[in-house]
Specification:
Blueprint lengths: L9 E5 L5 H13 L3 E4 L8 H16 L4 E4 L13 H17 L4 E4 L10 H9 L4 E2 L3
Parallel strand pairs: 1-2, 1-3, 3-4, 4-5
Length: 137
């Protein structure tokens, strides 16, 4: 992988939970490359509302502890590089930590961000400021 990540980084994978197979592939690849994946989207078992609340809370807590946010933005709804509102919120949270607390979180998007999402302009702006990186696979 050519993502310029230092070895042994604590990584949180952000993606639609519909991509379990892809998430597991990249999780294993990151681990094989010497990183520690501390959180990734998981399928919610049992009561959805209870599971969602736990998953949501755990995910954001781990973002505060990570060295890198790995955005698995792949094709969804016929949109290449799709970033949904949930993943956008996670990126915004990490950018906020970087800006307000000087937290050194590397934010890497696997694919270029599309131009036709409600938050595309903001993501492109953050990229131009160097707050997020786009690293096509």
């Amino acid at each position: 992988m050519n993502y310029k990540l230092k070895s042994n980084m604590k990584i949180v994978i952000c993606a639609s939970s519909k991509f379990i197979d892809e998430i597991n592939f990249w999780k294993q690849k990151l681990v094989n490359d010497g990183h520690v994946v501390i959180k990734y989207p998981e399928k919610i078992e049992g009561d959805f509302l209870t599971g969602y609340q736990k998953e949501f809370t755990d995910h954001y807590k781990r973002i505060t502890e990570c060295d890198a946010l790995f955005i698995l933005n792949i094709k969804k709804n016929n949109i290449e590089g799709y970033i949904g509102p949930g993943v956008y919120a996670e990126i915004a949270f990490a950018v906020g930590l970087k800006r307000s607390q000087n937290k050194q979180i590397k934010i890497i998007c696997v694919n270029p961000t599309p131009n036709n999402l409600p938050h595309s302009e903001e993501l492109k702006f953050w990229e131009s400021l160097g707050w997020i990186e786009i690293k096509p696979r």
